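hey so i finally got around to running both of the ones u sent me last week. sorry it took forever, my laptop kept dying halfway thru and i had to restart like 3 times lol. anyway pasting them below in the order u listed, first the sequence line then the structure token line for each. didnt double check formatting much so if smth looks off just lmk and ill redo it

first one:
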Amino acid sequence: MGTQADDVTITVTGKTAGATPFLSQVTLAVSDTSAVKSIQFTVASKPGSSVRPLSATYTSSYLAERGDIGNGQIFLPVYGLYANYLNTVALNYVFNDGSSKQASTTISTDTFDDPCGYESPTVLQARAEGNSLSYDYMVLKGACSDFSPAVLDTDGALRWVGTAVLPSFDVAFFQNSFFVAHGSEIYRNDLDGTVTFLGDYGKSDGVIDFHHNVDLGKTGLIYEADTNDYYETIFMEIDVDGTLLKTWNPADIISAAMTAGGDDPSKFVYPSPTDWFHNNAVAYNRADDSLIVSSREDFVIAFDYNTGTIKWILGDPTKAWYQFPSLKKYALSLAPGSLPPIGQHAVSVTYDQGLLLLDNGYNSFFQQPPGAFRSYASPRKYHLDLATMTATEVWNYPMDELVNSPFCGSVYEDLPLNYLIDYAYIEGAVGDPLHARIIGLDATEAKIFDYEYVTAGCLEIFNAAPIHLENTAFPAIGPQSLNISTRGRVAPDQSALIGGFIVSGSAPTTVVLRALGPSLVDQGVDSVLADPVINLFDSTGHVLASNNDWETDSNASQIIADGLAPSDAKEAALQISLNPGAYTAVVTGNTDSSGTALVEVYDLSPAVDSKLANISTRAFVDSISESPLIGGFIVGSNQSSTVIVRAIGPSLSSAGIANPLPDPSFAVYDQNGFSLGGNDNWQDDPNFLAIEQNQIAPPNDKESATVLHLPPGAYTAVVQDASDSNGIALVEIYNLE
């Protein structure tokens, strides 16, 4: 009996050019469309390129919902093509029985008339092959033409432009679409070129104009708005369907704080048309549920998301705000050698809870005194110690040159310490034209590329941010911890490998659990568990499912179809649908055997209103045989996620564990083996206040915890004992989403 890949024929019968040369629609004739599970396209990079190919996978349900499947045909949107080029596009068809087959086609594209000059930069340093930069694509937010925004790869090649015919730099990339604000209106521009009107916020919500940037919020996107009452002060969170979720008015928040502190707010807060605040960026920090707001005229200020209460202020103490005791009391002190941000743009939260921004160095225009002035701009990163109300500058760039860029611009971090810097408005010598400049840095702080563009004001590249288009999924999946795995030592009695996880949300989710042992030999693991057994328990201790040898599971054929079949028949796996709640997977050895095993949980329904969260795994840590407890997790798909990682040992004695690990410590690594951070004693962690505020503080001072803000990818937490002792430990990953 053949597979569906053998039986189903798929033929490319047409290619229709899209609204720009970067888009095409490929028509496929399919003998049985119902057998197709998903289709992936991959646009090959040009010869000599160091950029990973642009790729996307569409599920058949997504294509059917769009109306792209019918009458024996599938219409496949393809984007990210090179203009004026014969593109090679690989196609991968996956079928419902788990089989797949591959094909290839070519798409010839026309020349693109580039009004912004993105395709003709001055190359100060080209990206070389074989470097370690973590991102390959970047969105340039500008208003130099109707084709806004633009996507470049890090070779400098233009790969996509907006089709909404809206010259606007008020843009965000979210859930595989660009959201563009123009005037009082908001539009969604999908990667296939489709444009959807989401709403006009003029009459209903008093918006005259959206301005500056669009940033990711708690649930939706945060837009800065001008209204009849206040200029560049208001910001609003709006979801992907255009529903207004929440509005904040810093004029009201700051006025209330000044009044409560005995100051007259009318001497600092002014109604429209006065530009007293000049909001140009907002960052939502999930670690403490706060909004960090850039006020170019004044400071960086943090508000509580729900109440609007001021949490802290970071800024130049020679500016007007510091003259008011009611605001001064919120000021963070600057550590020796640290400079305050001035006229800053593009605030964001880094993977280690640092505050990152572009310090433009320009003082206030309206507020008096205007504060300090610097003739250069610099990206700066601060560590904030809110226990001592201290800010320490921990990184800045450039270190060997001064760039005079007083307005606009940005700096963002992708994977830890990989940066994209945008100097949007560089003033050179008298008579020289204004120009913009984008620079990519890898984790070693090596400059990977450096491109310069002639600009008019901030119009070409007001803001630039890394985006990941190497393997985009449709439908989009929000930030969540998926496909969790933990490796540890299994022995009789209390030394089982125990994986705990929570299914959150309101709908059932389908998971596959696996217990691996023999196949770990291929990964260089010694003394593996020869015959693992897995049992799944609910929160009451009731056994929901068990498996010894995976081929005996009732859903073995589906486990194969999902590509999750263990490679050894002695390994265990089971598939089950779970309602929201807490669950525990216990891995033991058949006939009480011992050895190293791996327990894994795969979420097969990440698009539904449920997700895996708050994962924990208990196992024996053997320092003598160098057998740490290793917890792995994946953050998916195209958004960052904030997690708290904990390693628990001594407090396990209160749960009846006779041999707890006395002094657990851990380190977290990315998929390239790069260390992102770790901890020994949790109270020494720079973000211990956020750990306490989220009520996840370990019970014992010897236990470990840290907060990490992670981009999409695979991560590993390795738990050992700081004093090389042995014992049972628990590693936990809490998803703050």
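and the second one:
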Amino acid sequence: MNPIHIAKIAQELNLSDHQVHATAELLEADATVPFIARYRKEATDSLDEVAVTAIRDRLNALSELDSRRESVLKSLEQNGHLTDELNARVLAADTSAELEDIYLPYRPKRRTRAIIAREKGLEPLAMTIWSQTGIDPAAEAMPFVNPEIGVETVEDALAGARDILAEIVNEHAEARSRIRALFMEKGIIYSTVVAGKETEGAKYRDYFDWKESIATVPSHRVLAMRRGEREDFLNVSITPPEEEALRILQQQFVAGDGDDSRQVMAAVQDAWKRLLSRSMETEIRLWARENADIEAIRIFSENLKNLLLSPPLGAKRVMGIDPGFRTGCKVVCLDPQGQLLHHDTIYPHTSDHQAEGARKKLVQLCQDYGIEAIAIGNGTAGRETEAFVRSIDSLAGLQVIMVNESGASIYSASDVARDEFPDLDLTVRGSVSIGRRLMDPLSELVKIDPKSIGVGQYQHDVDQNLLKQALDDVVISCVNRVGVDVNRASVQLLTYVSGLGPQLARNILSWRNENGPFKSREALKKVKRLGPKAFEQAAGFLRIPDSANPLDASAVHPERYALVKTMAEDMGCGIAELITDPNRRKAISIQTYVSDQVGLPTLQDILDELAKPGRDPRDRFEAVVFAGGIDKIGDLTPGLKLNGIVTNVTAFGAFVDIGVHQDGLVHISELGDRFVKHPSDVVRVGQTVHVTVMDVDLARNRISLSMKSVPGERPSRERASAPMPETRKQKPVKSQASAKNRPFNNPFADMFDRQTEGNRNQKGSDSKKRDN
């Protein structure tokens, strides 16, 4: 463990060396992030998952930098360039950019103009001019004229010397550092339309003549320009003020005003235009892309977290309906554990006769299977099916809930669904998924690739490795935060439990199938290959509600069972009574139980858990009822006020489902009566909101919405300064969408619609396939 890394990370994250060192030790011992944050608070001084993850990621980044450093040193040594001074500089490099700048002059390269000039023996002339002692460059160049090697004239010699000097300028570490800083501080990103592509690339029209500071450009605009460039509709460039760049280089390298200095200045100008500006632009483009990726991934992760933690209806008998017109609605009946009891097809939208048959069948199924709630997919024919079900008087006592079915078709065709229902049609599998999503969104959504759920922003354009790591972290965090009933969980859900993984998850399921439900956490030790380390990491997150030991249904870790037993004995009762009697818990003085192994944070967690053992941290389920009679986009009119559910949050606004098969956009400028820095500050995926229709574009299937008290009105000073109700704590972010990008003048909104067409607008895609 590198102490320099520990100190560096502690300084960067504003933590103590002790916290970073302890976290690093735990990570090195294969402890997971959720385990460290939940059960090792004494070691880390109560660092949360965000901090532990940041330490992990920074350790990995510094390790990669060290690996690159070793490669650089090896290359320098093999090529005979390594000196004590160079070795010290390489070891002292704090960043990848600094390391590469040091290595650049010595890195093996293709045959450049400077190399060719050196091969002609012009390096001594170049270095003489470089010294700028007032010599006459032409006179110094005469001896180097040699037609036999391609130096025909004095000017040829001087041109070769300038090529050598230009490369020196380009590879000078300090100069590159200063120019890099100039790019970052004052660089401008320019975007223009490719000639002749104005019509074909109309979706990027806002970027046909666009410029903006690279330091402040929001991530979604970087992503939009990148995609437009990749699709060959846009030309994109980044450059700082050229005169300022040349001034920096002149101050760095030009020492006088004689003829030799003018040669150096010519070399500097050549270095800037031909070499340095291009290499720096490439580097800054990469930097901007990485920043945009990070922000897009952050937004995606936040959306996914809120979606996974959506309130569950709970263990009830549910009917799931995948709606459709011509091919009918697929109906399934599920038991409280989500097991399929029956499946059928009804045709409520084809004829009056078949609609009557559908009514009778639904009523009979609800009676036969004791249905307590009905989940209807929100895709094609969703609102029509909802209206049909609600019109059945004998079902009036049941909850009828629209369920976002994005990604259901992905699940239906997956290996997971085929393994579970090998003999069922895709649409029946989709109906099962819809019903289960209502019962427990987390348990069902973990079966689907997060990128197919429809809450991303340019998810296919960002770094896929970073995206996968971030989304895996989110799923792992959510699963372990909620906890998993080991006797009901699927392999997919168990896979994300701390310390398990795919193989142990399969082994747990195999043991369960062969031996029946687990009776206690201790029984987990009988599972093949589930050793002490895996048990330590996983046990606290696995629940066994029917265990004889009530602690097995809680988040109290087995390593603290003896402590809880001591607490109960000290209170003169058993563990079960300690859980049910708040007066006995209040009588506990937790200071009494502080030891070298257990501190106040863990003791307080134990008391909190005893008060509500196995509590679900998710909010209470509340159904959202969409406005009656508003079933399609043509039913909307400006000024109409509706209930909606946030389906996606992006850098420029939020998409809201208002029950018309097409999500509307609340632009960032319409999210509240005060200035909103970032949409995630005020809305989250799954949140119920009240919106006003501002505009409807039937031709482009677009809906513009507002959450302001007076839509379209600029916030007054009073409103701007008034606090807005907080939906959750959120760290400030750097990117900010410009007010220029109104909903119908926003190229990113166009691309977002297309990008998520298979996700967000995938609602009812199975139905569409059937009906088409």
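quick thing i noticed on the 2nd:
Residues 3-106 form a domain with the Arc Repressor Mutant, subunit A fold (CATH 1.10.10.650).
anyway thats it, ttyl
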